[in-house]
Amino acid sequence: MATTEINSTSTETTTGWTIIFVAWLIASASTLGALFFGEIMKLPTCSLCWYQRIFMFPLALILPMGLFPFDWKVIRYSLPLAVIGGLVAVFHQLLVAGVIPEDVRPCTQGVPCSQTVIEWFGFLTIPLLSVIAFSIIITLLICAYLRSSK
Questions:
Q1: pLDDT tens across 92-126, in order?
Q2: How far apart are CA 130 and CA 97, in angstroms?
Q3: Transmembrane region positions (predicted)?
């Protein structure tokens, strides 16, 4: 009986570790992509992009701290960052799509937030990439949380 419980806990821990590891891979790829666009390609960075970076960059550092040694509490610290960053990303995407009027825009100086600097395949913009990355990270962290609560 006790061996079954240990094996069950070990399997849940391994699955949780893998889920958080994948979330870290996405956060790291997003961080490196943002740095590549800004520092290598010299693309202008608007205010909303900076706010999204503020919430994405720490995820690339916090998530691996919860992996070695594995600690379920990393979800408690990283999920709020991902949710707030995701909300900023959704707001930015709605602004770029024209759903939110430009009068509401937070970028009054410098690069306009509604400007599209990259568009791949006719629809894939940097704000949409951010929405996708934050959404996947949030989903993975919620899945890991649900695993931990069993």
A1: 999 888 888 777 767 766 677 777 777 788 888 89
A2: 14
A3: 16-38, 50-70, 77-100, 120-146
- State the residue for tokens 């205010």: 47
Residue recorded with tokens 């009027």: 101
What percentage of the chain's residues is helix, strand, coil (to nearest 5)?
Answer: 70, 5, 25
DSSP 37-92: IIIIS-----HHHHHHHHHHHHHHHHHHHTBTTB-TTHHHHHHHHHHHHHHHHHHH
Question: Please, are residues 58 and 82 in contact by the beta-carbon 8 Å criterion?
Answer: no
- The string of pLDDT tens digits covering residues 46-66 is 888 999 999 999 999 999 999
Q: How many CB atoms lie within 10 A of CB 100?
A: 16
